[in-house]
Amino acid sequence: MTKLFVDGVEVEVPAGSSVLQACEVAGREIPRFCYHERLSVAGNCRMCLVEVEKAPKPVASCAYPVAEGMKVFTDTPMVRNARRNVMEFLLINHPLDCPICDQGGECDLQDQAVAYGKDGSRFLEQKRAVKDKYVGPLIKTIMNRCIHCTRCIRFATEVAGVPELGATGRGENMEVGTYVEKALTTELAGNLIDLCPVGALTSRPYAFVSRPWELRKTDSVDVLDAVGAAIRIDTRGPEVLRILPRTNEDVNEEWLGDRSRFSFDGLKRKRLDRPWIRRDGKLVAASWPEAFAAIAEKLKPLSGDRIGAVAGDLVDAESVVALKDLMAGLGSENLDCRQDGAALDASRREFYVFGSGIAGIDDADALVIIGSNPRTEAPVLNARIRKRWLAGKFPVGFVGPAGIDLTYPVTALGEGPSAIADAAAILKDAKHPMVLVGRGALARPDGAAVAAAAWALLRGAEGLRADWNGFCVLHQFGGQVGALDLGFVPGPQGRSLGGMLGGGVDALWLLGADGFDPALIGPETFVIYQGHHGDRAASRADVILPGAAYTEKEATYVNTEGRVQRGRAAVAPPGEAREDWRILRAFSAVLGTPLPYDTIEAVRARMAAVNPVFGSGFLTAACSDPAGPAGDPAALGDAPFVPPIPVYWQADCISRASATMAECARVIPPAMAAE
């Protein structure tokens, strides 16, 4: 540790820290444009100048290391004058178009110009003009505003692992852009908008839509992938206008995947806003009492074993427990939340969660990825793996399709399950080994054997201990783990989804279940679809009950590591749509056996009774029992693994309804490894 003085205050910081970091420890705010704590130091903007005792001139605090006994001054006449001059330089070529700039109101340059700007300039030359660049359908560029901080370049290269942005020219002729004009091929492009300290990079879908002070801001969690990123939903009236990330160091740091950020326009399209009943082969609008009566008329004569229910991938835990209790009241054990048929052993939580925790990636020292493409399944988690690889001494083995670019080098072990045994060499001598099993690897006929083989691989590497659990299942959506925690799987006499299809049941309740081909449902099966989008399954339904999307309800979700999180309602559901658990509670009363809860607090108490994790938010980390999941490691098949999400941009019912995501799917090619 190094001791120094900042404006007379003694502080102690780790050796090698910068003066800027020491000033922050001392509680002094240092202006900056190019510096960002998650990126390498560039030292471009010089806005962070401070005075150091005995130094002949102001120093850039972001790039200047601390020294024992150093005396730093952050607010002297020399410092103030130096920062004013830097601001004057920055504004020489800036267009000063704040009234039409989408960054207005949340612009670092505006804020710092208030503190250090002047009312005039000594420069009379004409401002330079720079051509706007095309970087894809998500980011709008106005390069006249660029101040060459290079944050975007460093993020694309270091965090996203896609070195497609750079600078050409020198001095006044320097320009930032893609060397050949094209769309950026990263799933994290939206974070460039957050990083840009001026209005050079702004959101194309949000262009000229609103000002930040007009928006109502609601903290929530993302469910479009299983990371469960902390987000902020910005709304005006009944409409979602923006989704931005919030900082959560243990989950998403401060990043957000592009599908989670930009697919919100899908919330306005293909929505179900009233009940529908199929009559004479056609769906016709109906009232809630009519829809409930039609369902009750069909269900009451049926025995429990002829009724089934499937929970979708984006469904909240409150709705899952309500549907489970409704099915129990009907005497049915035909429940399933695994639309993809994944062989997930729900008997122990260690078998289906990301055991090390997402933050545990930082502590791992070897990784084997089996049948997963984390770049498309969870881009933010993939960026964390890349960050760990950049730190060094982190071998990565990959069992899966050839030609996939994960943004970090991997040792290709093979394309099929037979290569799992060869992965032992990657984990050899690792103190914190990790095996990442993709959900797609388990959604195969030999899925149980794959899970058992992966567990055995990690057990052989001593990666299953009281202080470390390296068995990590990567789910794909935010509602998948919560349903497993609530035991929404077939009972002892129940049928799985495969057994319910093809006429296995006479009535099938689909709760937001759009992840399988509805053509597989038997032609005589009565289908109730409860959800928020007119997607795949709604077209097969006999009765449609309109539910609420994740931005429209108070709800609980569990991310891939088993972290229980709460989402909050930012807007009201459209039309006659209602929260899903309330629909199920209302229908149970029509049956004459009302569910024993009327408030969301009572529903959550019921969830905690089913699984205490919903009362404590407990995050599993230890492995108390080395016994593996059900499955024979010797029963592996020969078929190669295939990518579970072929098109990142259109993986769920919301993004499939999004015009922005459709344009991304059209323009941006899939990322493939370099030849």
Automatic annotation (TrEMBL):
It holds the Pfam family Fer2_4. It catalyses: a quinone + NADH + 5 H(+)(in) = a quinol + NAD(+) + 4 H(+)(out). It is an enzyme of class 7 (translocase). Residues 1-78 form the 2Fe-2S ferredoxin-type domain. The keyword Cytoplasm does not apply. GO terms for biological process: ATP synthesis coupled electron transport. Residues 215-271 form the 4Fe-4S Mo/W bis-MGD-type domain. GO terms for cellular component: membrane. Its cofactor is [2Fe-2S] cluster; [4Fe-4S] cluster. Binds 1 [2Fe-2S] cluster per subunit. InterPro entries: 2Fe-2S_ferredoxin-like_sf, 2Fe-2S_ferredoxin-type, Mopterin_OxRdtase, Mopterin_OxRdtase_4Fe-4S_dom, NADH_UbQ_OxRdtase_75kDa_su_CS, NADH_UbQ_OxRdtase_ferredoxin, NADH_UbQ_OxRdtase_Gsu, NADH_UbQ_OxRdtase_Gsu_4Fe4S-bd. NDH-1 shuttles electrons from NADH, via FMN and iron-sulfur (Fe-S) centers, to quinones in the respiratory chain. Couples the redox reaction to proton translocation (for every two electrons transferred, four hydrogen ions are translocated across the cytoplasmic membrane), and thus conserves the redox energy in a proton gradient. Belongs to the complex I 75 kDa subunit family. This is NADH-quinone oxidoreductase. It comes from Humitalea rosea.
